[in-house]
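idk why but the lab printer keeps eating my pages so im just putting this in chat instead. protein + MRU:
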Amino acid sequence: MKISGTPYRTIWPTAAGVIRVIDQSRLPFEFTTLDLKTLDDAAHAIRTMVVRGAPLIGVTAAYGLALALREDASDRHLDEATQALQATRPTAVNLAWALARMRSTVAEVAPSERVDAAFREAGLICDADVEQCRSIGINGLEIIRRLAETAGGRVNILTHCNAGWLACVDWGTALAPIYMAHDAGIPVHVWVDETRPRNQGAALTAFELGGHGVPHTVIADNLGGHLMQRGEVDMVIVGSDRTTASGDVCNKVGTYLKALAARDNDVPFYAALPISTIDWALDDGRAIVIEERSPLEVTHVAGRTSSGVIETVRVVPEASPALNLAFDVTPARLVTGLITERGVCPATRDGLRGLYPDWQKAK
Ligand code: MRU
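predcted complex ->
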């Protein structure tokens, strides 16, 4: 996707051999990049959400492992680096998926060849993510097209958090079908949940959609249900950080409430995700480890003042404690369908196995 007319991915290797990422902690106010040169750089970028979004976390971890092997290609360091990267964020399964894939590739070669093999594999994971997101876009586009034909006008789509190209390498998951619908001339308008506490919707989704010229409106997280009651939402599309083998969808906290409101108002609710987000080992979403982040993200809000300074201010009384659970789980029964790179399926075990009969080997 483009920023001010220049095409970008969220992560790429430079000629100098470092991994360059867009620093998402400074968006939408400043566009800057950051160079990751070491394992610690990569782990820090994931932990502090310089990079975030399930697919991008996975790709960054893959490159992080390659950087680690450049420091020391021994078995011992491979283990330590894997553990360090795995410990950065617990919920998005893409992280464990990418690390497992990297390890199985690297383990097959002698330590002297590991660095090249690791960078090559990370590049393949990165490129595959782009193609998977493109296919998710094509598959989701058909749903939007059908809605446009039956509704006969503008299609209003609600989304939560940021599941666009900034959360992946390019295109995005939930936003890919929206970009493709817009590019195909289908009139779409997006209700963008601000997504407290980190405001990924207000800061990143709005930045992305605005950059691509997609009509959108940022709303307080709590408005979605009311808009659905008024018939102003035709569909919901969200991303996912971990989808269980039976179709439960773990995503940014607040997603579950949108799914409940959607069901009560007969609004179709879709989750868009690539294979790297499916946790085949888990059936019940309630077993997913939900990341608990600093209460400071709830008690404080960051923004730009009228004089152009980015500041963080407190919005909660000094004495009040806060709880910051970053994700929730939407049970499969509330999900109309899963939009994947292989097609759209019901959020059921049979639905997923039908699309991925080769799930034990598929990459
Ligand atoms: O905490 P974040 O910003 O990493 O959370 C991201 C989300 O929850 C996204 O909706 C999710 O990764 C969707 S996949 C593109």
